[in-house]
């Protein structure tokens, strides 16, 4: 996942800009949308590395020792050959090569070029990083939903209301879904924990363009014991054009193709204007 992220130059540039000079509102939203594509990225480690390189580039300039410079270039070149991010590393190496080994680094621009070479070395060893510091940080559904909503302020959640079904007692929450991307999340509060061997919850999305007898299957899910608040990504089986109702039912393990709707626990529909 780290390699795929480093190949995404726009995403890398935005994250570097956030650390070094900051982003405006539109750029921040673009960055959050971009980062959703890389849930395995250790964002905090990347930001710390970028901040360290930036700080170092602002220190008083010193001539780069020739042996050190040669070793850095050799290592960055080896890393480029061994990873799909070779083009990025090579570009940074080429810029760094413009610094003469016999002359001191006299300005910020040349210092930045040298530190770009150091960054290329970090890229080359990116494959070792997880083994040194442990598994990468992977945000959970709660954090992913929060990021997604922050990047899409125009999406309004629909509130879940419990039904009279015994399994719905005290349940609530909300659901938000974007037809343009077919992405969405359900947020539940006090929905009763289930035993997956006995039954599972299943989401149904009623689409204005489809027969109400056959709502879209939004996926099955579980509520772990002891959890009073859970967030569940929506996995619609087919495209939804215009949702008009979300319903969660209790079904047999694995779900069903067509629900008898005998146990509907919560419903969500848009508020009337």
Description:
- By secondary structure, this protein is an alpha+beta fold.
- It folds into 2 domains: 2-133, no CATH class; 155-268.
- The protein has helices spanning 2-7, 9-20, 25-35, 43-57, 66-82, 86-97, 108-124, 129-133, 141-151; strands spanning 158-162, 172-178, 183-189, 200-207, 216-221, 229-233, 243-251, 264-268.
- The chain has an 8-stranded antiparallel β-sheet with strand order 5-4-7-8-1-2-3-6, with helices on one face.
- It is elongated, with a radius of gyration of 25 Å.
- The protein starts with a helix and ends in a 5-residue tail after the last strand.
- Mean pLDDT is 77; it is low at 76-92 and 94-106.
What attributes does this structure have?
273 residues; alpha+beta; 2 domains; eight-stranded antiparallel sheet; 9 helices
Order of helices and strands: HHHHHHHHHEEEEEEEE
If strands are numbered along the chain, what order do they take across the biggest sheet? Answer: 5-4-7-8-1-2-3-6
> How much helicity do the residues have?
25-40%
The amount of beta strand, in percent, is 15-25%
Low-confidence sequence ranges: 76-92, 94-106
Number of domains: 2
Class from helix and strand fractions: alpha+beta
The tally of beta strands, per DSSP, is 8
Instruction: Note the main sheet.
Output: 8 strands, antiparallel
In short:
The protein has 273 residues and is an alpha+beta fold.
What's the helix and strand layout?
Blueprint: H1 2-7, H2 9-20, H3 25-35, H4 43-57, H5 66-82, H6 86-97, H7 108-124, H8 129-133, H9 141-151, E1 158-162, E2 172-178, E3 183-189, E4 200-207, E5 216-221, E6 229-233, E7 243-251, E8 264-268
Antiparallel strand pairs: 1-2, 1-8, 2-3, 3-6, 4-5, 4-7, 7-8
Helix pairs in contact: 2-3, 2-4, 3-9, 4-7, 5-6, 5-7, 6-7
């Amino acid at each position: 996942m780290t390699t795929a992220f480093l190949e995404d130059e726009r995403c890398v540039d935005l994250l570097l800009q956030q650390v070094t000079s900051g982003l405006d509102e539109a750029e921040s939203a673009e960055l959050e949308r971009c980062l959703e594509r890389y849930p395995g990225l250790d964002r905090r480690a990347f930001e710390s590395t970028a901040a360290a390189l930036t700080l170092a580039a602002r220190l008083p300039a010193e001539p780069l020792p020739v042996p050190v410079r040669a070793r850095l270039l050799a290592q960055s070149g080896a890393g480029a050959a061994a990873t799909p991010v070779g083009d990025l590393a090579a570009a940074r190496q080429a810029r760094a090569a413009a610094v003469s080994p016999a002359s001191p680094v006299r300005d910020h621009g040349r210092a930045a070029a040298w530190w770009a070479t150091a960054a290329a070395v970090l890229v080359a060893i990116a494959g070792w990083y997880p083994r040194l510091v442990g598994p990468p940080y992977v945000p959970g559904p709660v954090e992913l939903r929060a990021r997604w909503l922050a990047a899409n302020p125009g999406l309004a959640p629909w509130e879940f209301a419990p039904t009279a079904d015994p399994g719905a007692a005290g349940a609530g929450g909300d659901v938000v879904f974007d037809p343009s991307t077919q992405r969405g999340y359900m947020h539940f509060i006090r929905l009763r924990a289930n035993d997956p061997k006995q039954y599972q919850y299943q989401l149904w999305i009623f689409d204005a363009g489809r027969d109400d007898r056959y709502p879209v299957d939004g996926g099955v899910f579980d509520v772990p014991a002891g959890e009073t608040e859970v967030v569940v990504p929506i996995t619609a089986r087919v495209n939804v054009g215009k949702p008009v109702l979300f319903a969660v039912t209790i079904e047999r393990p694995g779900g069903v193709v067509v629900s008898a709707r005998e146990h509907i626990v919560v419903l969500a529909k848009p508020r009337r204007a």
